[in-house]
Amino acid sequence: MDTTVSSHTPSSKSLVRMLRSGIFKALDILGLPSVLLSTKHGKGTVVLYHGVTSEKGTGIFNYRGKHVHTAAFAKQVAWMHKHYTILPLQELLTHPDLGALPRPPLAITFDDGYRNNYTDAFPILRETHTPATFFITTGFIDGTPLPVDTIEYAADTVEEVVRLGTHLKTLNAQEMRGFLQQVVTDTGRNLQEILNDSPYAPMTWSEMQEMERAGMTFAPHTVTHPILAHLDAQEQKKEIIDSYNTVKEHLDPLAIFAYPNGSKKDYTDDTVSILKEAGFAASLTTQPGVMARHSNMFELPRYTLDGTNDLYRFRLTVVGAR
Known about the structure:
The chain has 13 helices and ten strands. It is α/β, with parallel strands linked by helices. Strands 1, 4, 5, 6, 7 and 10 form a six-stranded parallel β-sheet that branches. The two termini are 35 Å apart.
């Protein structure tokens, strides 16, 4: 496979990382998180995790920290309890007076449905009485690897993953299927064959039912995790509605949706219209920010917590400084 890399040398990349890390540490030491926390009164924060794991996996698994380390997650939950009022997502979105809460309100969400949400995150959430909402990609639960994981498993280098992943985001559903099949054919590495025994494994419905009985909530995140803006309205509707109906066969889903990828260019006015017509009350992006009284309920922001094993990075991300 073509492994074209960026113009940066490894040494220059390392220097940039060191400089950024030094800046973040300095801002944390100077107390910026505390300063910004004081501005969050009456405003809702939603944070986004993908996975929580202590597993190293093989090859370049978790090269960008998509799965936060289990020990780091425990510390993060403790910090959030100390500085925020952690609410179930549904309660955060419908609370009549967020300003009346003793600390700024916050809701925890997870996207996709990795098994480590059950094995690593759930025990910590249950032990600390912390609510969370899990947005489920139903085709993944039923055995189809997520597109980005298919590429990560097949690739040899981080640069290759970045290049292929960037291209993947330009494709419609049919093109994406063909592209992923070509990647598997070219490399001979088929994640689907080992999915359930790999670090990329999905949760099972019975595991999610156990979590629901303990107070966790669930909601749809499409069937195949496409970028909805690349689909026509009928294809978008099928991804959204089929995902919701599948979750409903096993659980009691919230009428809340999370856009795959989640930037402003990843969904359209058609997407929002489909959600409203289907009776959804809200949808979440991955655009950073806080929720205020007059926020658009179908473009709600979230802070993504990938790559936050260091507590100073986590704090700066949650308060909106990073």
